[in-house]
Amino acid sequence: MAETEHITVADTSAGPGGTEDPGQSVDIPVVELLTGRGFITGKSGSGKSNTASVVAEKLLDNGFGLLVVDIDGEYYGLKEEYEILHVGGDEECDIQVTEEHAGKIASLALEQNVPIILDVSSFLDEEEAEALLTAVAKQLFAKAKKQKQPFLMLVEECHEWIPEKGSMGEVGKMLIKIGKRGRKHGLGIVGISQRPADVKKDYITQCDWLVWHRLTWNNDTKVVGRILDNDYADAVEDLDDGEAFMMTDWAEQVRRVQFHRKQTFDAGATPGLDDFERPELKSVSEDLVSELETISEEKQATENRIKELREELDKKNSRIAELETELQDARDLQRMAEQFTEALVGHVEGYNPGRTAQEEMRRQRERLAGPPEEDDAAAANGSAGTDETEEAPPSDATSGGGFGDAFSAFSDDGVAMNGGSDDAVVTNGAAPATNGASTNGHADEESDADAALAAAMAAVDDAESGDDSPASDATDRPAVVAAVVADLTEMNDKTLRMLAYYREHGPGTPLNAQFSAGGDGDRTAAYARNRTLRLRGLVEHVGRGKYDYRLRDLVSEESDETLDESTIEDYATRIERDVLDGHGEA
């Protein structure tokens, strides 16, 4: 580092508030500049960014460290003459950085004296830019306490971070902290803004040196009048480009000065009609970039690993959901088979043609529920018209499914009817009937069993329709409607609410349907319930992980596509009225 104690940045100027001896050099003490608090302001085009660049160039000429927070992408022109590290969020930078690089950026700046342009203009996400700037400022402050090395942080458009009105974010709080406490650690700050009225006055009034370029808006000139004097507030409107009033603690006076022109490429100049030619820019050491690239590579590797683990977890959760659904399907099949067995055994033991359908259903429920309490047993026996008690085989099944459904499931799993043995029925491990009825191959006994089976099916269908007359099912609740309603009533409330969601909203994901049903984000439960609906044909996959309602298609399929559209609509409406209405969003 050079032993320079002062840097020359401007010459005195004549005019209101100026000197009678213009052209004298204006110097700034380096220590005051690096460790103090400064403020440079002026309307667009007045020369404030040029002044900041001149200060930066003079520090770089003498080997002093600094970090420029560039909000408009104006400072990369410094690379025309200086090996300065340009970091930010796009490919124009030497390297793209994120919040994870903050510690290394601060280390390069303070410990290795690497000048840095932190270009936040290249971030599309403002929150990402603010997070990076906050992290870098915190790291600079923390390391400066240990390093004790004079270092300057130059912040463009500081009114966006430390506003006079409105709330101040983490960035502003950190910049204010550096302004108040950074000096004792050797960390200085310079804020630059075209709107002094919008910058927090607590910051401006604590500055050691201030530069006021041309200002014309009334609110801004009022700030000049309060801090300098009303005479300067009037004169500041007539300053030429690059001209400014400079107020410093060390000179204890206000001088009218003309700042020098910057020597490097002016990337912040307003575009004109002349051809634009970008100069050749200096590159920084590959070792510096490689250190930052290592952090980027490690971050990318971590993100990739996290993504892989999430994908694996999703696959496992999906598989768990499938297995749980398959287990539930197996239990349902076993339950329906046991229901079929109970119905068949009950009628083979002694079907009473005079028994009503309701009594028949009550009797079967009593079988499945086990021995009733004393009062309930007496009532059940009385309503059945008989004093006999029958002991049902042990079973976890409960009533509720249609007899036709039980027969279908039982047929698929296999009802073993051994014509040559004394075992009446063997199915899915259910206990064989031992009431003396056997399918031994004799024609008359097979005929009796068939007659009993037909009667049982008719009795259950009549019970489901709510009418004692078997013929009423055809008029009050068609077989198609009864079968679908029976299946739906077997489903739990959340599953029905999910079906209602598909009905009301159209295509959606199982997770969204579960949320609508009052469930949580349990992916396994959502897909298990959705699979129940899909296997019954009530919903179908329509692409991109979404499912849609298909009750009307199901009604058509269940009736072998023999119904016209009007009848299908009528049947579907009956089903929705009987089961789905009232199962809207939780």
Gist?
InterPro entries: HerA-like, HerA_central, P-loop_NTPase, WHD_halobact. With 586 residues, the chain is an alpha/beta fold. It is built from 20 helices and 14 strands.
Features:
alpha/beta, Rossmann fold, Arc Repressor Mutant, subunit A, 3 domains, twelve-stranded mixed sheet, 12% strand, P-loop_NTPase, 5'-3' DNA helicase activity, 3'-5' DNA helicase activity, HerA_central, DUF87 domain-containing protein
Quick one: overall form? elongated
The tally of domains stands at: 3
Report the CATH C-level class of the largest domain: Alpha Beta
Classification by helices and strands: alpha/beta
- Give the strand content: 5-15%
Q: List low-pLDDT spans.
A: 372-443, 463-475
Report how far apart the termini are.
70 Å
The number of distinct helices, counting runs of at least 4 residues, comes to: 20
Q: Provide the CATH architecture of the largest domain.
A: 3-Layer(aba) Sandwich
* CATH topology description of the largest domain: Rossmann fold
